[in-house]
Design brief:
With 486 residues, the protein is an alpha/beta fold. The protein contains 16 helices and 19 strands.
């Protein structure tokens, strides 16, 4: 079950071509004769709005979906990739935006999963360490996957693909959950992978990232390939115009409003985890109505614990947390922590207040309310009876916002709310948070994109090793505080 560990790009990547790919889901055409060419030894950025068909096209390449028509070719030879097993044998690996790790299994067991031969825990751990060291993606092989941070789970997904000797590596929004330093390190790894003969398909919404690392770019819109070019011969403006069909929304700083009454007060809050490690130390904070307070911090800095404690999801070991009204939480991982993917839109919206409501569920009223919220929040779906798992990432996030903000909460806690969203969907999230603050809510928001924190927030707190520091809204000063520098 363990198999031999493979070094990255141990095999030369073939040229991958997808030609005329059509994929329908009922009456919805997700891919409309889409095409893509991945050159050996290159990094290829695949761009497009949420719902443009990027992930669907790559799921076809990886054998998770079967096209209704079209052809897949490897080195000009037609292939029938009927399953991920076929794709893996062909040297194609895929790292999904929403992770596929088995939470109860250790990192080493997840990496070994699907291998052949007699399983040895010791050998699996040793091989996991060797691979992690080789590609400089440090991870504890003994840690259960479910206990890992979001960034560590992302690393685990990459290690799983490399362990299976992938020559073509598909990554769906891999830097969306990483701190800037971690994102730079991952992009460096991908470039080295390509230099050794592998190929990388990078699904991303970050235009600067695409232009920085990619050799080639392709843009999908409404399931069609609408633009392709060498990265050196294009620009952010051209890519944005191809993605959106018009000028991209401009990111504007939020209007500074005077703070109102207190909506949140933390006094000497300390959180110690089950291992006895202090994750948040003596945190004191006041957030008032009309404020958007940005939380800047690197992975495992303690910002995750701060936000969860404020939202009431974990208890403080010491200190007090006072909230001036109802609290909404927009979690970082919408699929794991916010939605039941097998439930319909109506059922997911009905989860609001679950555990506190009493009496019968008035389903007709709930369906009517679901229609209203879907229209108000622009949740694009063929029906409110559609399952949440059938929506694009952007529409899933709109659904979470619709549920959490529908009753006008006094306090909103948002963890990386634009993770994996395109320009337009991210702008819509910003608008929702700013509108809520304008109406009198207090907003506490973290983003792994420091520029987003700076542009969105009325003031900024940096978190380093569990300690909070208020910092002037200036990039260099915030960055230094995140690193613990005075």
């Amino acid at each position: 079950m363990t198999g031999a560990p493979a070094s990255p790009a141990a095999r030369r990547a073939p040229e991958l071509r997808l030609e005329g790919i059509v994929k329908n889901f009922g009456r919805t055409r997700a891919l409309d004769r889409a095409s893509l060419v991945i050159r050996p030894g290159s990094v290829h950025a695949l761009l497009g709005e949420n719902g443009a068909g990027k992930t669907t096209l790559m799921r076809v390449a990886f054998g998770l979906l079967q096209p209704d028509s079209g052809e897949i070719l490897l080195d000009a030879r037609s292939q029938r990739i009927r399953s991920p097993a076929d794709a893996i044998r062909a040297g194609i690996g895929m790292v999904h935006q929403h992770f596929t790790n088995v939470p109860a299994m250790t990192a080493a067991e997840n990496i070994a999963l699907g291998g052949r031969g007699l399983y040895s825990p010791t050998a699996a751990r040793d091989r996991a360490r060797v691979l992690a060291d080789e590609v400089q993606l440090a991870i504890d092989p003994n840690a259960p996957a479910g206990s890992l941070s979001i960034a560590a789970q992302q690393k685990l997904e990459i290690l799983k693909a490399l362990h299976r000797n992938a020559a073509i590596l598909i990554l769906d929004e891999p830097t969306a959950v990483l701190a800037p330093s971690e994102a730079r390190e991952l992009l460096r790894l991908l470039r080295q992978f390509a230099l050794r003969g592998g190929s990388v398909v990078l699904i991303t919404h970050k235009l600067s990232e695409a232009l920085e690392i990619a050799d080639d770019v392709t843009v999908l819109r409404f399931g069609r390939t609408v633009y392709r070019a060498p990265a050196a011969e294009t620009s952010s403006d051209r890519l944005a115009a191809a993605m959106l069909g018009d000028a991209p929304p401009e990111r504007e700083g939020v209007a500074r409003q005077p703070g109102g009454e207190q909506m949140l007060r933390l006094t000497g809050v300390t959180v110690v985890d089950a291992s006895g490690v202090t994750r948040l130390a003596d945190a004191s904070l006041v957030v008032r109505a009309h404020e958007i307070v940005g939380i800047a911090g690197l992975e495992n800095s303690g910002h995750e614990v701060l936000l969860r404690a404020v939202a009431g999801r974990i208890d403080a070991t010491r200190g007090t947390i006072w909230r001036g009204g109802s609290t909404a939480l927009i979690p970082e991982d919408r699929q794991r922590d916010a939605l039941v993917l097998g439930f319909s839109l109506t059922e997911n919206l009905a989860l609001k207040g679950a555990g506190r409501r009493r009496g019968r569920m008035m389903w007709k009223r709930l369906r009517d309310r679901a229609r209203e919220l879907a229209a108000e929040y622009d949740v694009r779906t063929p029906s409110i009876d559609a399952r949440a798992g059938e929506l694009s990432g952007g529409n899933q996030q709109k659904l979470v916002f619709a549920r959490e903000l529908s009753d006008g909460p006094s306090l909103i806690v948002a963890e990386n709310p634009t993770r994996g969203l395109d320009i337009r969907a991210a702008a819509a999230v910003h608008d929702r948070l700013q509108q809520a603050a304008s109406r009198g809510a207090a907003v506490l928001v973290h983003s792994s994109d420091l520029d987003e924190v700076l542009s969105l927030s009325t003031r900024v707190l940096a978190v380093h090793e569990g300690r909070l520091t208020e910092v002037p809204n200036e990039r260099e000063l915030v960055g230094r505080a995140m690193l613990g520098l005075s």
